[in-house]
């Protein structure tokens, strides 16, 4: 994030084809998990250009269902894990879930307990402190609730993270990760967006409002907004719809980030280079079929 515009670099990712849809599940320690179409999941290191196609999870898409993923690192067993949540719509508008976990160490999928706190809302789980986290919607009486549901990758047990007290009024919330900590972006339409960070994982009282970003017409008029990065000098990199914007919360100024050689894009992720292998021990790299 310098004062000059940057140029896009084209990466030769696995199973690349003109019409394939690619879903970036997440990035952890230099490995990127990507899902291509509905059934091809890869672990990929863009730095070394090595990739590993995971075995078939056995989950199949059909009418009235959707799939949510997550990717993270199990610190206790030194293992990378991929989680797939298969949600099926039942009669009466309720959902049932089936959850499977892939272990890179064993190169196998296992079924674990069903997602038990509502329905996951965000496309991919957010990884922090050895757990994956999803925004989830549930029903409380006649109204809907918004929760943060966690899955500890070591013991594979679900939990809930108490939300920050964002204040009064109507606002939209998105769950993100900032410097390895859980972060909630509370957007008050037409007014401001507050950025909250849980500085000590699992400690509700550690939720801290870092700053507020003023509403800027024509920038916040997008349904999708994502907090990507906080620089050392306090500037915030945001994705607002199809735009990348650098914000200085101290003076409320914004600057569009121009990326050359990029015709169109849908989402952005932060990636840190490493030499971590996407293959487990003696696992032979699968051919990109």
UniProtKB/TrEMBL annotation:
Q: Can you give the residue ranges of the F-box associated beta-propeller type domain?
A: 24-276
Q: InterPro entries recorded for this chain?
A: F-box-assoc_dom_typ1, F-box-assoc_interact_dom, Gal_Oxase/kelch_b-propeller, Kelch-typ_b-propeller, SCF_F-box_component
Supply the Pfam families for this chain: FBA_1 (PF07734)
SUPFAM superfamilies assigned to the protein according to its UniProt record, in alphabetical order: Galactose oxidase, central domain (SSF50965)
Q: What is this protein called?
A: F-box associated beta-propeller type 1 domain-containing protein
- The organism is Rhododendron griersonianum
């Amino acid at each position: 994030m310098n004062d000059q515009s940057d140029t896009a670099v084209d990466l030769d990712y696995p199973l690349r084809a003109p019409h394939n849809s690619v879903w970036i599940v997440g990035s952890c320690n230099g490995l990127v998990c990507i899902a291509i179409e509905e059934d091809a999941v890869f672990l990929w290191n863009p730095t070394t250009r090595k990739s590993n196609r995971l075995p078939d999870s056995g989950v199949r898409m059909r009418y009235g269902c959707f799939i949510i993923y997550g990717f993270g690192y199990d610190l206790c067993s030194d293992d990378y894990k991929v989680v797939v949540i298969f949600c099926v719509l039942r009669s009466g508008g309720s959902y049932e879930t089936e959850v499977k976990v892939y272990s890179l160490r064993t190169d196998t999928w296992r079924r674990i307990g069903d997602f038990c706190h509502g329905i996951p809302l965000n496309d991919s789980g957010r990884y922090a402190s050895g757990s994956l986290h999803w925004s989830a919607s549930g029903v409380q009486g006649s109204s809907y609730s918004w929760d943060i549901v966690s899955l500890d990758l070591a013991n594979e047990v679900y939990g809930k993270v108490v939300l920050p007290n964002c204040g009064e009024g109507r606002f939209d919330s998105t769950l993100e990760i900032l410097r390895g900590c859980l972060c909630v972006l509370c957007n008050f339409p037409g007014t401001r967006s507050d950025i909250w960070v849980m500085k000590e994982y699992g400690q509700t009282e550690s939720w801290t409002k870092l700053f507020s970003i003023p509403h800027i017409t024509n920038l916040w008029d997008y349904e999708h907004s994502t907090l990507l990065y906080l620089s050392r000098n306090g500037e915030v990199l945001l994705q607002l719809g199809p735009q990348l914007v650098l914000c200085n919360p101290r003076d409320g100024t914004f600057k569009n980030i121009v990326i050359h050689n990029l015709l169109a894009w849908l989402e952005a992720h932060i990636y840190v280079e490493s030499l971590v292998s996407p293959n487990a021990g003696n696992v032979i790299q699968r051919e990109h079929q």
